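Extended Data, panel c. Modelled sequence:
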Amino acid sequence: MSTFVGFGFGAIQGGLFLAEAFSQSFSRLVVSEIDAELVNHVRRSGGTYFSNIAGSTRLRNIQVEGIEIYNPLVAEDREQLIDAIAEAQELCTALPSFKLYDVGEEASVAKLISEGLRRKIDSSKLPSCVIYAAENDSRAASRLQDACSSYLPDFQENRFVFSETVIAKMCSVVTDHERIQAEGLRPIVDGLNRAFLVEEFNQILIEEKVPNDFQRGFTQFVTKSELDPFAITKFLGHNAIHALLGYLAKEEGIDFMHDAGKRSDLMDWARNAFLKEAGIGLCNQYASVDDPLFTELGFQEHVDDALTRMVNPFLRDPVDRVTRDPVRKIAWDDRLLGSMRLACKAGVEPFLLAKGAGIALRYACEENKWDSPEAGLEQVWKEVQCEDKNELQKLIITNF
């Protein structure tokens, strides 16, 4: 009997990990969720839910059955979860942020996982396991391991491994009733005004390392001995250009990303920024990595695929979702500035990326009532001490 346990029942968990586990060899599917309303609805449905899949030519939905869902804030449910963790071979956290790993006494995911892992340590009859961290952070698994280690001083890496992931899969939970109706989306369960909407793309990268005597159940995922180059490429490539295209679209009054895809001028700008700025920076940074992605042809194929997916009409991705939180988007270590800095390192002036950063800065100034773009960047970069800071500031403000 193989058991999968997920933490957080959002679009990545429900639309990817649980759905894939259902289609693979897992015989028991368990998920931890603190939203009592969601838990009750899934239970009333008998553990069956639906996810909407946006393909390149059509929208379809899939049905996943046999889910056990428990609320860790309920004592009886918590015990069930600990039992499931103890018997699980593969687990996955898919929370809104890694910052939620260890928040609160009873809500702490790290503490909950550690209680289950403690039983594995105490009994050699329980299976070893891999714990995937699916939060959008290149150090998510390391952060989760550190959080769990505080509860497990005798942590045993030969029994369980925390694995980073690279998930370039666009997905969302749609809560707008009118949109659900208009697009023909199937709610997660009947009577609940929420729908999972995920793209069909499933090329998920995971770390190659596994515990001793371990057989992976997720056979379709792609393993890499070192994930860092691919995680950074997703963040400073795909994510940066997605944000850039979103801000260009917002500037033009476009509401959905697929409508931006109809504008050849915007798509050309995004493609050139991807290939000639972000791409050059990334390929220069990872020239020593033996992978087709970091070759001229390989990166060009990656760009064409990513741009096509960004404007998938069946995703109906709102521009406002892509461009939200502009302060974070122009932080020194975030996607736009990180990509610009790599381009500069490779000897390229990133004026195309700077256009997106300049638009983002304008919205950040409006939201925070900053008097000028200079004052805005001073606030956003107040802790940055770097020689490149002034040059990048000038480039962005020119595009303000």
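The chain has a mean pLDDT of 94. This feature is highlighted in the accompanying rendering.
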